[in-house]
Amino acid sequence: MLTMRKINKQKGETIVEVLLSIAIIGSAVGGAFAIANRSTSTVQANKERYQAQLTANGQADMLRAYTSNQTIVTPVTPTPFCMVSGVPVSASNPQCSVSYGGGATYVITTRQATDNLGNIVPNVYVISINWESLTNPNGDKVDLIYGV
After folding, report:
1. Which residue from 90, 87, 92 is spatially nearest to 62, judged by alpha carbons?
2. Is residue 19 part of a domain?
3. C-beta separation of 59 from 81 below 8 A
4. How far apart are the first and last CA of the chain?
5. 10 within a domain of the structure (yes/no)
6. For the chain, what is the domain count?
7. CA-to-CA distance for 77 and 97, rounded, in angstroms?
8. Number of Cβ within a 10 Å radius of residue 128
9. Residue 2 lies inside a defined structural domain of this protein
10. Which regions in the chain score pLDDT beneath 70?
11. Which pTM value belongs to this model?
């Protein structure tokens, strides 16, 4: 007489287990991608800010050289300006917008500083660098206050 045995052992994975595994792995990969993307944006924003600070420092150096050649330090110009090749030019001049090949265009504006009442502070200038930023759609800005 033959004896029949019932085999009750399950082999392999169910579809639910496979889908759950795919969901967990997908979430982990998606999270890693989001972190890497955010890190890249932060690095780019830091590069842009550093370049803006270098640009502002260069403007301050040219302003210092220009005013040191003056016998009497007088306001460079009452209107906003930027320094181009060591000479002040109107801020509306296209040379006041510079790009260093990194994608951002930096707009340079220098003006005389004012106090809380709006009075001009002699021999003190505010050098502003504005650019469109990846992290701030309204643009970003660096201000350097420089006294001669």
Report:
1. 87
2. yes
3. no
4. 112
5. no
6. 1
7. 19
8. 20
9. no
10. 1-12, 71-78, 134
11. 0.72
